[in-house]
Amino acid sequence: MADPTGSDAKVLSTEPLENKDARWTKLVLTTYKDPRGKERTWESAERTTRPKNSPIDGVGIVAILQKATGPEIVLQKQFRPPINKVTIEVPAGLVDEGETAAESAIRELKEETGYIGTVGGTGDWGVGCVMFNDPGFCNTNLNMVHVNVDMSLPENQDLKPELEENEFIEVFSTPLKELYAECKRLEKEGYAIDARVGTLAEGIEIARRWKLFS
Questions:
Q1: What is the C-alpha separation between 177 and 5, in angstroms, rounded?
Q2: What's the mean pLDDT when you consider all of the chain?
Q3: What's the predicted TM-score (pTM) here?
Q4: Which of 59, 103, 145, 178 lies 20 to 30 angstroms, CA to CA, from 130?
Q5: Contact at 8 Å (CB) between 199 and 89?
């Protein structure tokens, strides 16, 4: 019997959730003053899991496989109940108490994919700026962390992910220069494209079309 995959999952029902019963999020009503001084309200969601002394909730990981044929980006297929679809994502996860973004990225990459990498780049390239996923709806934020994966290392030949019991993640890679076309192809097949993957693909395509680095 084949191992279960995200395509085997489906939403069975949805119902209202009270804040007191929620484990990960809560709804809040914010009262604020607009630029003209008028008092207004705003409904939004907040994560309740951010570590006390952490500026971020989690990390997204741009993991690049160093291959002779050119760099490839590590992607995942994972079922997401809020949209009832399998989503194309980069590896990602929540930071633990006392953990830096870089430490979290290395840990999450190994747990979700089995790959062992190093946070790469010079200066501040390794850990990107704090990014807010959907600031009109929630306060969730993250750092994108850039990780290099040396494919010549033995530990990256025989991958051993450490998935939790409720995680069903399919890992694959695609040439970085073909990411935009791959997103278009996967969308036509019915997959949802995570905003982080889509934005990265759009950025690469913009750079190519406008010849920014030629």
A1: 27
A2: 96
A3: 0.95
A4: 178
A5: no
